[in-house]
Amino acid sequence: MMKQARTLLSRSLCDQSKSLFEGNFKVSPLRGFATRADSSTSARGFSGKDAAKPSGRVFAPYAIFKGKAALSVEPVLPTFARIEPGNLRIDRRGSVMMTFMPASGERKYDWEKKQLFALSATEVGSLISMGSNDSSEFFHDPSMKSSNAGQVRKSLSIKPHADGSGYFISLTVNNSILKTNERIVVPVTTAEFVVMKTAFSFALPHIMGWDRILGQADTAAQGITLHPKTDLPQLGVEWV
Known about the structure:
Layout: H1 2-25, E1 35-36, E2 57-58, E3 62-65, E4 69-76, E5 79-84, E6 87-92, E7 95-105, E8 108-109, E9 115-119, H2 121-128, E10 136-140, E11 152-160, E12 166-175, E13 180-189, H3 190-207, H4 210-221
Antiparallel strand pairs: 1-2, 3-4, 4-7, 5-6, 7-8, 7-9, 10-11, 11-12, 12-13
Helix pairs in contact: 2-3
């Protein structure tokens, strides 16, 4: 009976995730909240006949739904700028985007009231290195180094449950312009946190752009010249 109940819960969350994110991402301005599906299938050992041609972007967030709020995480790839013929450099560094959404009802979440927090490579490393009793806290100012600095302040806190069963992940956003102070808390289980850490470890070299360096080295070793694509990723992501 317990196993059946867990199976039904899992199916329910999958269905909810599908309806929530398919419906909102199509109309969301965060079209960059995804990775490009422009990698060549032939470069990976597949011909056009063996694999479907990629089109558009791939949306694959890892979502956690709880009673009072939901959390979605997904890598955002860096963008590159051409500095001379055949060479690229990072123009905007990648991140792991965390999206918090408060609940608006039973199994419903308010996308319009979402709050974002972009983890840098170093912050991702801090989260990956966390032990079962460790805590982490990160502070962001979206308008840092501008005349609007200090108007909006964000604080991400990760604290372990007292019984060691998981963590509380909370985001606090203080907006001095609107005079608001919002706080969204999402409790995550140990298993959910392990999934996040494992996925973050896999994504880390990609958000740093190192996958392009290593890919270039691999093709050069095989006597193949890698030409930069002309359609560089243009991710319209809110940098927070």
